[in-house]
Here is the input.
Amino acid sequence: MAVSVKGRLALGGAVLVALGLGWWWYQSRLEARELYGDVEIREVDLAFNAEGRVASMPEQEGDKVKAGQLIATLDDGTYASALALARAQQGEAKAKLDLLLAGSRFEEIDKARAELESAQAQLENAQISYKRQAGLAGKGATPQQALDDAKAALDTAQAAVNGAKAQLTELVNGPRPEEIAAARAAYAQASAQVALAQTEENNTRLYAPVDGVIMTRVVEPGTVVLPSSVIYALANTSETWVRAFVPETMLGDVAPGTKVTITEDTPGSKTYHGVIGYVSPEAEFTPKTVETPDLRTQLVYRFRVRVTDADDGLRQGMPVTITLPGL
Here is the structure.
């Protein structure tokens, strides 16, 4: 059946309307998958873990630093002296321990044996003298005083022999285990003092913990600071995040691990890429006790996107648009 011109025009108009509605629906769906947030570069407050006068701060505001880079120092004179003292005490304790572990020298043992032999010879002479005086005293041929002197000399000689024997035994046996254990403990204590002094001396140097940009020089060289006194404020550029919010109706589209694109408001600006890393389990405000469907759509949840190809183009607080994966 032939269709009139008017019918064809009406049919064509209906098709155009349908196409227009479809395009509007498609565009609205695309726009609905765009979320808005701002760049969040985390800052690190840097401080010495020591007290002293700031000696140098070579970095200026805006300077880029690398992780591990030396960015400030304290006057370390006091700490260096304490470290030198601790090392000297450690050396003394080590020498005493080594002396005990080495035991007695052969020369010392030989000397002790000679002293024992000399004491034994004197003892034999004292014994002979005492016997002679005792025999004479029995015959009344010597005074009692001479006998008493001979007995005292004999006792002294016997004591000298006992002492020489003890000295020789001590040298042959070497130090007691308890003495060695005490020396080891003293050396360990001295070594711990060295480690502590070294740590305190190391703390006079401040290193950048991450790649970043110096945001603020809080103090200047010559300032006396305490531990935890902030020296620099550093923007951590090793990781850049975008903070955004998503309505409750789109929570299913922002699961952790979802890859997104990020653009600035400037036309023709670079497109960045990121991965959703965190979605808050709670709404940002407390909902009313009775929630209607309309109120539930107004709930928003905070989420964060880790930018995988960030550069200097992204700055703290910059507004950006986050586009979710296609339909």
Q: What stands out?
A: The chain has three domains: 44-75+204-235, 82-199, 239-323.
